Amino acid sequence: MIYSVFSPNNKEINATVQLPASKSISNRALIIHALSYADGQIHNLADCDDTGVLVKALHSNAHIFDIGAAGTAMRFLTAFLSKIIGEWIITGSERMKQRPISILVDALNKLGAHIEYEEKEGFPPLRIHGSALQGGEIELDGSVSSQYISALLMIAPTMRDGLTLKLTGKTISKPYIYLTLKLMEDFGVKASWTDNTITILPQEYKPADYTVESDWSAASYWYQLCALSQKSEIKLLGLHKNSCQGDAKVAEIFASLGVRTKFQKNEVILTKSNELTNKLIYNFTDQPDLAQTVVVTCCFLQIPFRFSGLQSLKIKETNRVEALQNECRKLGFILEEPAGGILEWNGKRCEADSTPVIKTYEDHRMAMAFAPVCLKTGEIQIENPMVVTKSYPNYWEDLRVAGMVVIENLT
Predict the structure, then answer these.
(1) Whole-angstrom Cα distance, residue 163 to residue 151?
(2) pLDDT digits over 315-335, tens only?
């Protein structure tokens, strides 16, 4: 399936958008809620594929779980099931079977878990023999994925000896770790983080009613739409100024890309400022999920950039660095990777495809980061557009409400 996305004739966006609930918060809240073994409700839970598979698994009596392409669910459930007595198998899509998980598995096994690889060493699917975990002290490379760290932290208070986690290397995506610890605190568990060591003593989660905030990652695509439009006023509902989501940094980043943010109670209003930087240099170590959006925006605003901290993009739903290079080339932009974790564009161009079709690589963020370029090109075609259901199922409908034409291309 291919969607053709057309810009409004006046290239203006005026819309009020109810953003989806945060997938990151929802998935953590679900695991912690399950570990509390008590009443309490989670309100405004994310309605997306990733959260859906986690809900299904946590409410299932099955012993085999297929989580598809949901990387967060794979990591969080691996840790969760390792402490639930029984024998479990967790598998996923072909891409998921190519995404490494040995760092987490090795750490869990050192803490008393018994996890085996069903096929390729170091990769899903996994066979998990769940049992009570001893816990203790371990070291973990913090430069690969914060989801490994969060998975361990959430089950840490249930371990007999608790957990002392020493992070080695440069820890990436720190806001996601802080987010995990904040949610744990909201459910009654305390932790300490001193230098590179996180310590969690044995303790019990307390039941709590919890309301999930809207998703700042989803907000990024509306910042992009505002930046690429001629004129905009976009109201985004359900966001907080003092959010614990790391991707709230999008407001600061897009201030350099011509977007002004006005914070009001539980919402933000975006308008164009036309104040553009000459070149954008940014380290995405703490906000890797914003990278695709900002890369594409800079290209179409003709703003050269040098972005670092992108090492984790190669183990996401796809190799996002390579995917960005491939698809931006179709639109006439040559992106270079001078070193690992770095992507830059110095204004180098090539001839664009006459009718470019953007490949999404089973990656929701590829679809959503490229659709807004219709405001500059008039039309853009997106292949396999329904990948957006992974995190933002109403994305295409929200674009339609905002004045863009989105149609299925039957040719």
Answers:
(1) 12
(2) 666 789 899 999 999 999 999
